[in-house]
Amino acid sequence: MIGALRLGSGGEPAVELLAVRRQRTDSVPRVVLLSVQAAVILLPMIRPTGPGNSSPVDLAIAAAIAAFLLWAGWSGVKLRAPYWGAWSLLIAGAAIGALAGGRPVPALLDIAQDLVLMLWVLALVNICRYPDVFRVVVRTWAVAAPVWAAVLVVAYFGHIDAVSGVTARLGVRAGMLFADPNMAANYWSMSAMVVAATKYPARRSLRVLAYIALALSIVFSGSNGGAFYLALATFIVIIGWGYRRFGMQGAIGLACVGILMGGAALNLVQPQKIQAWAVASNVPLLRDSFGRADQSLGQRTQLVNETLALLDQGGIWGLGPNTTIDNLRGRQQANFVHEAHDDYIEALVERGLIGFAGIFLLVGSVVVRARSVSARPLAPGYSEALPNRVPLIAALLGFAASATFYQVLHFRHGWALLGLLAALHLWGYRPAGEVARR
């Protein structure tokens, strides 16, 4: 039964579904929690791919969604659907763009992926209404990611290419079971922030080992974007530490010092010389990472310009999802045929103004939720699960920045993070009376 439409503080309406007066449970059944844990653990398992670009983790996500829906229907809990406005615009933009572009079939896969990810977020948000469940989910991520990273490190040093993901096409870059090394590095960087936010494992020595494994995995991926993500997120965490320790003036001071030191370092070390040294070195990993920085930047700039040239062809409705490569092939001026590598531009070109509005609304919703979560005190169960919220915000900012040079819209781990943010925003605050008494 569809409940009333409520306007949530996240900047967009929040739909209440299956509303009943009495709930039949105080927590989720163990099978639901275990299925969600399994999906979180298997986030790196994108390969081997199946029909429709499906992957092993998609089977786990589907099982988690099914278990969640059965529990929700049986218990009658009030379901919240965050980001539904953004999802609606993105899906509508994809459908209208595909019809306007005369190619509806390629869009079906994108729309199906959108719907699955929407249900994945719905499941995460609503089971994490219970602080013990939220704690288990975030700690599962904080443990699973370093374990996967340790497996990658061992496989890389042991030359076990089937596990490390090293292929002849990618050189020595390790993508493990992800679709490519860039996606892998994005996950490792985000996971480092999850470990920092949860401060889990509880023993500091184990956390240090976790950071080392994650950092080495980023290095072995050879992803400049992953290194940028980690550097940006770490910089934000340092500024957040300065704010907590010294207040706003301290945070501003640290930011200024960091920017000045970064600028001075660039002038001192001269990146062009370092890149030339990396290209000339006998270390393949350096050649495939720092050594290709200018080439990667040039290719992405060229690709962005060529993709933007498709705006005239698509008009306000767009060309439809999964059509950029075919449309670039059809243009004689296109010298570099590839996907857009930019979610914001791709949304505008393929999903039109409607899809671009969806991306804009999604970013705005995340900003509003992140700002609220970072400023308000959390209820005891949630505060213990997430003792440091700054790394969570840093992970979100790094993910948003990554969308300017990768297509991250369908990264499962990215939507898992957005689901946890929405859960924290919906359920994680202290009661007003308790705040007043503090």
UniProtKB/TrEMBL annotation:
Predominant location category: membrane
Pfam family for this entry, one: Wzy_C
Residues of the O-antigen ligase-related domain: 210-359
Membrane topology reported for the UniProt record: Multi-pass membrane protein
Subcellular location: Membrane
InterPro entries, sorted: O-antigen_ligase-rel_domated, WaaL-like
Residue ranges of coiled coil: none
Domain of life: Bacteria
TM region positions: 31-47, 59-77, 84-101, 107-128, 140-158, 178-198, 205-221, 250-269, 352-370, 390-409
A cellular component term, taken from the record's GO annotations: membrane
Keywords: Ligase, Membrane, Transmembrane, Transmembrane helix
A molecular function (GO) term: ligase activity
Family annotation (PANTHER family): LIPOPOLYSACCHARIDE BIOSYNTHESIS PROTEIN PA4999-RELATED, TEICHURONIC ACID BIOSYNTHESIS PROTEIN TUAE
Name of the protein in its database record: O-antigen ligase family protein
Lineage: Bacteria, Bacillati, Candidatus Dormiibacterota, Candidatus Dormibacteria, Candidatus Dormibacterales
